[in-house]
Specification:
The complex is a heterodimer of chains A (269) and B (460). Chain A is an alpha/beta fold. Chain A has eleven helices and ten strands. Chain A has a single domain, classed as Rossmann fold (3-Layer(aba) Sandwich), CATH 3.40.50.300. In chain A, α1 runs parallel beside α9 and α4 packs across α5. Chain B folds into two domains: 154 residues, no CATH class; 250 residues, MetI-like (MetI-like fold, Orthogonal Bundle). The chains are: A alpha/beta (269), B mainly alpha (460).
């Protein structure tokens, strides 16, 4: 707890704009007959980092994958309820998940660069969405994305080398650059640091705080310290239910639900 | 028959040695297997190997040197009866006696002194065999005695047995390699004999293929022409047609099975497709000659084209159908092996399914796909039965798929069928063709391996 308090006080507490970016209403997920997530209601403010915590199998990753409709790619997976983004239900009939995913980017647990050069990895999104008019513009987008992901200095001399040749931490920043290159509004991160060493983790956490100025970030994490360090708001999931959500410092210091306190102090999990 | 009995007895002794060694090892430690270094079975195997290996080595060595020893022994007797024979004549005489000894009918009509020699020969042979058997059993007994003496709780029996097994594995893999080398050399030597008659340059670059050799000098068509270019051009044409059929169909069905179809559909269709690979090629040959060739000819006539009834197209199409499962099944496997995380990454970028497949999955699976295609090409080049039945025999140098062409494999078959003299250029030409075929497939495999390795370095 002491560690978490230190982390909380060190956190940048600049005030968010207060505008609601996403709101989930009665969201539930079924894998075949199994009900993995029940009745989640939650709002996400713009330019905030929101962390989703909870023990393994609690439904936090499942919920995250609802927000860019990645669950659609899993056979037998069914989502109920609605998620509104800027007032439009992303599960509405006239929403194309492909378009949605250009607005809601995602970074995965394990770095998954494509088997292409560093440049082509970052340029992939702008290319498929026709976002750059020519080579010069594409170069600009790639440089901007790599700079924003803090990878430009390390990668600028080896843009044509395969992305898979980078170290694990660099690969994960490449994946972040790839995600932000299409200028999404929301970035989802599914345990982005769980495969990285502490130094690479610190770099990514700094980056998350930077990126908050331009994007809304929702991050799933197993590390309490990380949730406390990077997020303004925290939601605790347990057994497929959203138990409690609120400002991060409240969740970590004065949780309402006994299960939240028990999880944070390591008694359940 | 005697040899079979010998082997059976040695194996029986080995089995007994195993049980004896196992029991003895347990006896040494008073039945407490925990006090032994290795499991009791290893001590049994240790003793058994000490019996088996010396006895079998002795038998194999005798098998190898028996002819030499026999010859040396009988030469003295031959020279007694027929002094003053030259070296070649002695060899001839020894061979004759050997034939007489195994051919009762010829033996009956042989002269008396030859019969005596054969009797002496058989006598030496049976003494040698008995000596070998006695020696082998003595060695087995010595091995048994030695191994029994060695058994102690601290004997590393497992290591010793595993080492013996490793040696056996090395021997097996060496056999495979040596066989390949042997095949290459036999091809090479026969081809050299051919090149003594026909210059390699004429063979490799000549445009005329008509492998006839005259029996008499006044015969019609007496001049043979061994320019292999038309034959190789025919092979290339048919291979190209078959790949033009097999690669698109195989690749697209692989992509459909791996990316679009349901698991249930795939579980049904993939084995059915693989049945295609199990159909004997001679059946494909029927299909090509009786169904596909007339069909192609009729369609050609309907649109006003002059199509030969043994067209390259018909043979190529059927061969392509045969090869589809090679491409589809292997490509399906490599596409399935592309990690799901790469697909997730592409979907999360807002890529559509087809963009994901074209830009991420296929490039990642590319080395494996190239490998499967190269395997299919090698198969197409070496395929024999379909082209023997459906392609022509005339060596036309043409790129027209409606004409009849011939292939390397067809020519090899026709050159070697029937009664042949094995020293005429006509027959030897088959070996030269085989050699070139071998070199071409070897080069293709090397290219395939290089491509696969290069992309693998880049992508993983």
């Amino acid at each position: 707890m002491a560690e978490i308090n230190v982390a909380l006080s060190a956190r940048d507490s600049s005030a968010p704009t207060g505008k609601i970016k996403l709101s989930a209403r009665n969201v539930g997920v079924f894998y075949g007959a199994a009900n993995a997530l029940r009745d989640v209601n939650m709002d996400f403010e713009e330019h905030q980092v929101i962390s989703l915590i909870g023990p393994s199998g609690c439904g936090k990753s499942t919920f995250l994958r609802c927000i860019n409709r990645m669950n659609d790619t899993i056979p037998g997976c069914r989502v109920v309820g609605s998620i509104n983004m800027d007032g439009t239900n992303i599960y509405g009939p006239d929403i194309d998940p492909v378009e949605l995913r250009a607005r809601v980017g995602m970074v995965f647990q394990k770095p998954n660069p494509f088997p292409k050069s560093i440049y082509d990895n970052v340029a992939y999104g702008p290319r498929i969405h026709g976002m750059a008019a020519g080579k010069a513009e594409l170069d600009e987008v790639v440089e901007w994305a790599l700079r924003s992901a803090g990878l430009w200095e390390e990668a600028k001399d080896r843009l044509q080398q395969p992305g898979t040749g980078l170290s694990g931490g660099q690969q994960q920043r490449l994946c972040i650059a790839r995600a932000i290159a299409v200028h999404p509004e929301v970035i989802l991160m599914d345990e982005p640091c769980s495969a990285l060493d502490p130094i690479a983790t610190a770099k990514i956490e700094e980056l998350i705080d930077e990126l908050r100025r331009s994007f809304t970030i929702i991050i799933v994490t197993h590390s309490m310290q990380q949730a406390a360090r990077v997020s303004q708001k925290t939601a605790f999931f347990h057994m497929g239910n959203l138990v409690e959500e609120g400002p991060t410092d409240v969740i970590f210091t004065k949780p309402h639900d006994p299960r939240t306190g028990a999880y944070i102090t390591g008694r359940i999990g | 028959m005697n040899n079979l009995i010998f082997i059976a007895v040695v194996l029986a002794i080995t089995a007994l040695a195993y049980h004896y060694g196992r029991r003895h090892a347990l006896g040494v430690v008073g039945g407490k297997a925990r006090d032994l270094h290795s499991l009791p079975g290893y001590y049994g195997a240790y003793v058994a190997l000490w019996c088996l290996i010396p006895a079998m080595t002795c038998a194999v060595l005798w098998f190898l040197i028996e002819p030499l020893v026999l010859k040396q022994m009988i030469v003295g007797s031959i020279l007694e009866t027929r002094p003053g024979l030259s070296g070649d004549e002695i060899g001839l005489a020894v061979n004759e006696i050997h034939s007489l000894s195994i051919n009762a009918y010829a033996f009956a009509s042989a002269t008396a002194d030859k019969k005596a020699l054969v009797g002496r020969y058989l006598e030496i042979k049976s003494i040698g065999s008995i000596a070998m058997v006695v020696l082998a059993f003595a060695l087995a007994a010595a091995g048994l005695y030695y191994a029994r003496k060695m058994i102690a709780p601290r004997l590393r029996a497992r290591q010793a047995v595993e080492k013996a097994i490793m040696c056996a594995m090395i021997v097996c893999s060496t056999i495979a390699v040596l066989t390949t080398i042997g095949i290459v050399f036999s091809l090479l030597f026969e081809a050299m004999r051919f090149f003594a008659h026909v210059s390699p340059i004429d063979f490799l670059f000549g445009l005329q293929w008509s492998p006839q050799i005259a029996m008499r000098s006044d015969q019609v068509g007496s001049s043979g022409a061994f320019g292999a270019v038309p034959v190789f051009a025919g092979t290339l044409l048919i291979t190209a047609i078959s790949m033009a059929i097999a690669v698109p169909i195989g690749l697209f069905s692989a992509i459909y099975m791996a990316e679009y179809s349901s698991h249930k559909f795939r579980a049904w269709v993939k084995p059915i497709l693989e049945v295609l690979a199990g159909i004997p090629t001679v059946v494909y040959g029927f299909f090509a000659a009786l169904t596909m060739a007339p069909f192609v000819r009729d369609v050609g006539q309907a649109v006003g084209l002059d199509v030969a009834s043994e067209s390259a197209l018909a043979a190529g199409i059927v061969m392509g159908i045969m090869i589809i499962p090679f491409v589809s099944s292997l490509s399906d496997d490599v596409i399935n092996a592309v990690p799901q995380s790469l697909r997730d990454g592409a979907y999360a970028m807002g890529a559509t399914k087809s963009e994901t497949i074209r830009q991420v999955v296929i490039p990642a699976a590319f080395p494996g796909i190239v490998g499967s295609i190269m395997l299919a090409v090698s198969r197409a080049i070496g395929e024999t039965m379909i082209v023997v039945m459906a392609a022509g025999l005339a060596a036309n140098l043409t790129a027209n798929p409606f004409a009849a062409v011939t292939t390397v494999t067809v020519q090899i078959v026709t050159l070697l069928i029937g009664d042949q003299e094995f020293d005429s250029p006509k027959t030897l030409a088959a070996f030269a063709l085989g050699l070139v075929l071998f070199v071409v497939t070897l080069i293709l495999n090397i290219i395939a391996l290089t491509v696969v390795r290069r992309y693998r370095e880049q992508y993983e």
